[in-house]
Amino acid sequence: MQHLAKVKLLLSALFLAFLGFLDASYLTIVHYKRLIPPCSLHMGCEKVLTSNFAMVGPIPVALLGVIFYVAVLLICLLMIIEGLKLEKLLHLAIWIGFLFSIVLFLIQFLILKSFCQYCLLSEVISTGLLVVSVLKIKGDKKVEA
C-alpha cells in the first residue's frame, strides 16, 4: 500500500477514534454528574445508562470507552508522527473494542430491550474503526505480495 493511502486510513481511524472519545467522554461526564442525557429513542437512554450493565464493577462502561478511544488515538498518532510499526497492536485494540461493542449492543437488544443513541453511536464508530483496520491490513498484505 502506498504511504499516502496508509496515512489516509490512519487519519480515518484517528478521526473516528476522536469522535468516539467525544461520545464516551460525554457519557462519562453525565454519569458522574448523575444526569440522564436527552434521548430521542423513546427514553431508552435512561433505561440503558442506569442499568446494572452500565458499570463494570466500580467503573462506568463509558469510561472504558474513553480509555479505548484514547488508546486508539495514541497508537494512530505514534504510527503517523513517529512512524512506529504498531499495526498489530492497533488491530488487536480495535477488535477488542468492536467485540465489546457487540456485547453491549446485544445487551441493549436482548436483555434491556431499549437503546441508548449515544451507545449506538459508539458501536457504529467501533465498527467503522474495524472496517478501517481491516482495509489497512489488506492493503499492507498487497504491498508485501
Outline the structure in words.
The protein has 145 residues and is mainly α. It has a single domain, classed as VKOR domain (de novo design (two linked rop proteins)), CATH 1.20.1440.130. It has 5 helices and 2 strands; from the N terminus they run ααββααα. A two-stranded antiparallel sheet has the order 1-2. Strand 1 (55-56) and strand 2 form a beta hairpin. The model has no long low-confidence stretch (mean pLDDT 92).
| Structural Rg | 16 Å
Shape by Cα distribution = elongated
What is the assigned CATH homologous superfamily? Answer: VKOR domain
Q: How large is the count of helical segments?
A: 5
Work out the strand percent: under 5%
* E-strand count: 2
Distance between the termini: 10 Å
Gist of the model:
The protein has 145 residues and is mostly helical.
SSE inventory with pairings:
Elements: H1 3-32, H2 44-49, E1 55-56, E2 59-60, H3 61-81, H4 87-112, H5 117-144
Antiparallel strand pairs: 1-2
